[in-house]
Amino acid sequence: MKITKIFNDENGDSHFEDIEIPLISQGEIGFLSEDIDIKKLQFRKVSADYDYDFHCAPQKQFIVLLDGGVKIETSLGKIREFQTGEILLVEDISGKGHKTKNLEKRERTSLFIHL
Asked: How many CB atoms lie within 10 A of CB 4?
């Protein structure tokens, strides 16, 4: 399963990295990843005009986009768009951070899984 990681380097600059979460066949029930320990799970809804300037993630977390996409910009100006159903692993909890903006002018819901 492909996800995108956002992390910062030793200079504090944020970057994207595509990573693969291995899935293992479990027969009739499908393919599962290894267990991942989590601390908390949190739901979030943002307004239609959500456009958040540079910020760091409050903690290492997965973000699952439930209904709406985002445009994310790294501190070095790299931009990617992510759609409903995509998963991000956000690890830039220090440094220069990243920008986030709704792709569409409508409320957006996501799921935070704190690690």
From this structure: 17
